[in-house]
Amino acid sequence: MKKSNEIDQYIAGFPGDIQILLEKVRATILKAAPGGEEVISYKMPAYKLNGILVWYAGYKNHIGFYPTPGPIKLFKDDIKGYNTSKGAIQFPIDKPLPIALITKIVKFRAKEVLMKLKAKRKKI
After folding, report:
1. Percentage of the chain with pLDDT > 70?
2. Is the domain covering 5-123 a CATH 3.90.1150.200 domain?
3. Residue 71: φ, ψ to 5°
4. Among positive and negative, which fits the CA dihedral 121, 69, 38, 32?
5. Partner of 45 at 20 to 30 A CA spacing, among 13, 53, 65, 119?
6. pLDDT for residue 65
7. Mapped to the 3 state alphabet, what secondary structure does the chain carry?
8. Alpha carbons 106 and 101: distance in angstroms, whole number
9. Does the pLDDT of residue 119 top 90, yes or no?
């Protein structure tokens, strides 16, 4: 897969410390679900593999991670201590990124999207 220049430009627009965190999230996603495509969706970096798996974004005080509502419910015990909403998790920039958690969520999303795709194909 070719790296997306749009993603590179997005990340380059942040201060150095946030760039480093965004690149770590990016590398974690790419490793957890190889073979997909990096895209910009809703003006944020996203990762697409049979559909959008996750989005992520940089902010002044946190990295936003948007895996959709399913993983928020499923991994509720794992994400205690982070600010969350229906479909988002905020990772504070002053704490280490939870790489293992991000990996687990991305792998779950890859399976979830594939299952939905298979179910959709069966209906056709």
Report:
1. 96
2. yes
3. -65, -30
4. negative
5. 119
6. 98
7. CCCCHHHHHHHHCCCHHHHHHHHHHHHHHHHHCCCCEEEEECCEEEEECCCEEEEEEECCCEEEEECCHHHHHHCCCCCCCCEECCCCEEEECCCCCCHHHHHHHHHHHHHHHHHHHHHHHHHC
8. 9
9. no
